[in-house]
């Protein structure tokens, strides 16, 4: 079900329950703000057929959620370390191409 880094191998295996499980393993509690970003990430993937890197995520969040949420510091407060990588992992998406 998961690769060695903990990303889902098959996008169709994702569900909110799977997201909760991945988040718990990462020490993240999913509240409304986190779910909003997870839904944004899934919408981005559906639209562009790719997982966003951090810069693209910040830009897209600003466009879709407003300038106050389209900031690196805001996204870091929700998904510490690497919001794009961690958010994509929890959202059941592939790891962004340029994330280590």
What does this protein structure show overall?
The protein is mainly alpha-helical and 100 residues long. It has one domain: Arc Repressor Mutant, subunit A (Orthogonal Bundle), CATH 1.10.10.
Features:
100 residues; mainly alpha; 5 helices; Arc Repressor Mutant, subunit A
How is the main sheet built?
Answer: none
State the domain count.
1
Strand content: under 5%
The residue ranges in which pLDDT falls below 50 over 5 or more consecutive positions are: none
Number of DSSP-assigned strands: 0
CATH fold-type name = Arc Repressor Mutant, subunit A
Rounded average pLDDT: 95
Would you tell me the structural class of the helices and strands?
A: mainly alpha
**Measured distance between first and last alpha carbons:** 21 Å
Determine the oligomeric state from the structure.
single chain
Task: Give the overall silhouette.
Answer: globular
Approximately how much helix is present in the residues?
40-55%
Query: Helix count?
Result: 5
| Rg, Cα atoms, Å | 12 Å
CATH class: Mainly Alpha
Q: Which architecture does the CATH hierarchy give at level 2?
A: Orthogonal Bundle
